[in-house]
Amino acid sequence: MAAPAHAAPATPHHGRAHQHPNYLMIFWFLAILTVLEVGVIFMPLPKMTINVALGAMALAKAALVAAYFMHLRFEARTLGVIAVTPLAIAILLIFVILPDSFAIIKQTEKKKPVPAATAPAKP
Question: 70 and 79 in contact (C-beta within 8 Å)?
Fold first, then answer.
């Protein structure tokens, strides 16, 4: 059945037009986050703190890129959920595999090579 001629076209935004984001400002946010990431590496912090900080900044950068350059901020929420689902699955898999990696580290620490015996000195 055809739509009446006077009906408005269906849009995901219900007739709202979005403003174009300031891509230069987003570029500068990404550049600042990159400089902060490089700075965190050289800070005298525990490795776990550095890893958490780098992971958080990487997620922030990924969110900025997805929201503005992939235009997910202006799309229907369903498309955003579809885009975030692989990230959730990847995080789940990391936590599932993590205990095995700790077991492998423990086993390799137990099997450290024994230094070869040296020959006694000749008189």
Answer: no
